[in-house]
Design brief:
Elements lengths: L9 E5 L1 H17 L12 H21 L11 E5 L1 H27 L3 H32 L14
Antiparallel strand pairs: 1-2
């Protein structure tokens, strides 16, 4: 018996630095949802399927960009984005924003220059990540809503 495969993704081309951000954030999506597996047998079939979709979408992204950065990355790679995966990225974006808000108070309380410098670097890294996620969500959102019947950049089961 085979499982029906979803075919509702659109392809977004990403450069190597965006692929690095996407790789890390996708792994965090997997990690953030792992605890549901502890109670998987208590879920009904619909909930089990919904959880599996999160993992399938994330694995599809990681398979496209690679589980680690290649030594000689391509100039761009096409990555499958689904509505569900975009929702996961939106959650990551929300979490990054709140993490940086929390860091601001920690930075204000820091007494040594080294700690302030480290916090500033973390804030800047997450800000850059958030900007990349905003761009990816905007690109994929525009493509996933109101798709034409047979677009060249997306494929659909319709």
């Amino acid at each position: 018996m085979s499982t029906a495969q979803r075919n509702d993704a659109c392809l977004i081309s990403v450069d190597p630095s965006t692929a690095d951000i996407l790789r890390r954030q996708t792994l965090i999506v997997l990690e953030a949802n792992h605890y549901y597996f502890e109670e998987l047998l208590e879920f009904g079939p619909e909930a089990q399927y919904a959880l599996s979709v999160i993992y399938r979408d994330a694995f599809a992204v990681l398979d496209a960009i690679g589980w680690r950065r290649p030594d000689d990355p391509l100039a761009s790679v096409d990555v499958p984005f689904t509505v569900g995966f975009v929702e996961q990225l939106l959650q990551r974006r929300y979490d990054l924003g709140h993490t940086n808000i929390d860091r601001l108070s920690a930075r204000d309380e820091a007494v040594d220059v080294q700690t302030v410098s480290a916090i500033n670097a973390a804030i800047e890294f997450d800000r850059y990540t958030a900007i990349a996620l905003d761009r990816l969500v905007a690109m994929s959102g525009a493509r996933l809503r109101g798709l034409p019947k047979r677009p060249s950049f997306c494929f659909s089961s319709e």
